[in-house]
């Protein structure tokens, strides 16, 4: 019986030892992997939009120019348009010329330049100091203007004013803007 006990005990010990060695490294021949991803993806494009840039029409830092600028721009998804123009202000030129003449000591010539404007001419006449006439001043100038009314300054209705020019430019810009909306 002793051998039987040794045989059973040895068989169990051998089986446990063999089982422990083989159980540590199993061989797997079938492999399945499942991956689940939940998330949000966002793409940001950082580029400037197309733009129509209106040019700036100005005299810059030189304020001694008598020009007025007007410009505008319209941009749609398809088309961009910009337009601009400058206008000469005649009264500004008259004022600058008169000031230059006055600064050079030519006061009568400066007044004569200002008297080319009908409103100034009338104001001088109503104030009792008529505009110079062919080198004459005072009452002699008044008599000269009364005898030769054809040379007196007249209202100029045919020449557009700076305001008329500006309104025309704004009208053109409005037409371009209106047509751009249709795109």
The residue ranges in which pLDDT falls below 50 over 5 or more consecutive positions are none
Calculate Rg over CA atoms.
49 Å
Task: Classify the helix fraction into a percent range.
Answer: 40-55%
Order of helix and strand elements from N to C terminus = HEEHHHHH
**Oligomeric state, counting identical vs distinct chains:** single chain
Biggest beta sheet summary: 2 strands, antiparallel
The N- to C-terminal Cα distance equals 109 Å
Number of DSSP strands?
Answer: 2
Give the strand order, joined by hyphens, for the main sheet.
Answer: 1-2
Mean pLDDT: 74
Shape: rod-shaped
State the secondary-structure class: mainly alpha
- The tally of helices reads 6
Bin the strand percentage: 5-15%
Characterise the protein shown here.
The chain is mainly alpha-helical and 183 residues long. Helices cover 45% and strands 10% of the residues. It has helices spanning 2-24, 90-103, 107-114, 118-126, 139-147, 162-181, and strands spanning 67-75, 80-88. Strands 1-2 form a two-stranded antiparallel sheet. The chain is rod-shaped. The protein starts with a helix and ends with a helix. The mean pLDDT is 74.
Per-chain topology:
Layout: H1 2-24, E1 67-75, E2 80-88, H2 90-103, H3 107-114, H4 118-126, H5 139-147, H6 162-181
Antiparallel strand pairs: 1-2
Helix pairs in contact: 2-3
Note the main attributes of this structure:
183 residues; mainly alpha; two-stranded antiparallel sheet; 6 helices; 2 strands; 45% helix; rod-shaped
């Amino acid at each position: 019986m002793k051998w039987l006990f040794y045989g059973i005990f040895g068989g169990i010990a051998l089986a446990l030892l063999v089982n422990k060695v083989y159980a540590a490294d199993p061989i797997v021949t079938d492999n399945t992997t499942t991956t689940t991803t939940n998330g949000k993806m966002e793409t940001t494009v950082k580029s400037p939009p197309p733009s129509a840039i209106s040019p700036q029409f100005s005299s810059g830092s030189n304020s001694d120019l008598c020009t007025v600028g007007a410009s505008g721009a319209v941009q749609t998804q398809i088309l961009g348009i910009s337009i601009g123009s400058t206008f000469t202000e005649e009264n500004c030129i008259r004022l600058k010329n008169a000031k230059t003449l006055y600064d050079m000591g030519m006061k009568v010539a400066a007044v004569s330049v200002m008297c080319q404007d009908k409103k100034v001419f009338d104001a001088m006449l109503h104030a009792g100091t008529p505009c110079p006439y062919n080198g004459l001043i005072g009452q002699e100038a008044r008599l000269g203007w009364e005898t030769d009314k054809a040379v007196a300054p007249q209202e100029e209705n045919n020449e557009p004013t700076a305001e008329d020019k500006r309104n025309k430019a704004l009208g053109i810009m409005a037409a371009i803007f209106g047509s751009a909306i249709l795109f």
